[in-house]
Amino acid sequence: MMSIVMNLYYTGTNGNARKFAEEMESSGIAQKIREEDGNEKYQYFLYMDDPETVLLIDSWVNQEAIDIHHASPMMDDLARLREKYDLHMRAERYLSDDAGVPDSDKGFIKE
Known about the structure:
Strand content: 25-35%
Radius of gyration: 15 Å
Distance between the termini: 24 Å
Mean pLDDT: 94
Low-confidence stretches: none
Largest sheet: 4 strands, antiparallel
Order of helices and strands: EHHEEHHEH
Helix content: 25-40%
């Protein structure tokens, strides 16, 4: 089964991107998104190359699940927080290939 993975880079000033991610977690919005049908992953990461940027990895089973998510009331809450912290975004979209990690790459991974 193929997944759609979005890498969303939230960038602000004065630590606002991190504050945004922390409020997404503490307010429960992030958890509600994780509980939506079709969500496979919704996780924030600190972006080491830029302390004013936070990376969100957001994975969905298909475009329909994303469309339903985008139509949900949580998107209004998320948009309000983005405005509160004056964040700008950059997005990357990937499709998984379902093949998993090739044997040729497994030697580089310590489990």
